[in-house]
Design goal:
The chain is mostly helical. It folds into 2 domains: 23-86; 101-137 and 149-219, no CATH class. The chain has helices spanning 2-11, 25-51, 56-86, 88-97, 105-115, 123-130, 155-170, 175-183, 188-209, and strands at residues 134-139, 143-149. Helix 3 (56-86) crosses helix 4. It starts with a helix and ends in a 10-residue tail after the last helix.
Length: 219
């Protein structure tokens, strides 16, 4: 029944579904490398937390694991660095993204690895893909709840944008947006999500038009 329903949906011309296209090889390589780097980093953080809680007869093993993970992290970072050397277009776009206030090496690579994935036509599509688009939560048929982000999509990309958003907040990089939300007594979590969304929109726009970040233009 599930297969039949999906088939009927796909045959309906009004939906105008496009045939799925696999990501290009270079883009897939960058995405997998950035994902694995994030995995190794999280694993090392977990082991470091264990180190403070474990008895002495275990700590030596944990330290060995941490050292091994550190070596792997260095190796993957070197591999990503080599990737950019071999693909000048990606390197140029990486540097372009890093002109955005708060965006560093990791966030730039994660954003870049998702940019070409579905040939997004608008920044709204890109933001929705990441899961930073607003969604109205409702209870029943008439009670409306607070608007929150959908969280449908790339959790790793949202995670990569959190620290850049925090940096942007601390240095007041986008005063108009921050002050407007503060005047409405919005909590810091809401402001940070708004900054994450803004950074994603700016990143998409810069890659689309082929220009570096201009502080005054996006202030």
């Amino acid at each position: 029944q599930d297969a039949k329903l999906i088939a009927m949906y796909c045959q309906e011309k009004s939906h105008r579904l496009r045939e799925w296209q696999p990501p290009e090889k270079n883009q897939q390589e960058l995405e997998e490398l950035t994902k694995y780097l994030d995995y190794l980093t999280r694993q090392r953080a977990t082991e470091k937390n264990k180190l403070h809680e474990s008895p002495d007869y275990i700590t030596a093993h944990i330290k060995t694991t941490i050292d091994n993970l550190t070596d792997q992290i260095k190796a993957v970072k070197q591999q990503i660095k080599q990737f950019y050397k071999q693909h000048p277009e990606y390197d140029q776009n990486r540097k372009r993204l890093m002109t955005i206030t708060g965006i560093g090496e990791t966030a730039a690579s994660v954003l870049l690895s998702n940019y070409k994935k579905h040939e997004f036509k608008t920044s709204k599509q890109f933001v929705a893909f990441i899961g930073l688009d607003p969604k109205q939560h409702e209870s029943g048929t008439s009670i409306k709840g607070k608007s929150r982000i959908s969280k449908i999509g790339k959790a790793d990309t949202r995670k990569a944008l959190f620290m850049p958003a925090l940096v942007a907040y601390r240095i007041n990089a986008f005063p108009n947006l921050i002050n407007r939300l503060k005047s409405k007594n919005k909590p810091i979590k809401v402001i940070l999500v708004a900054l994450m969304r803004k950074l994603a929109v700016i990143a998409f726009t810069l890659l689309k038009i082929g220009q570096d970040f201009q502080v005054e233009r996006y202030k």
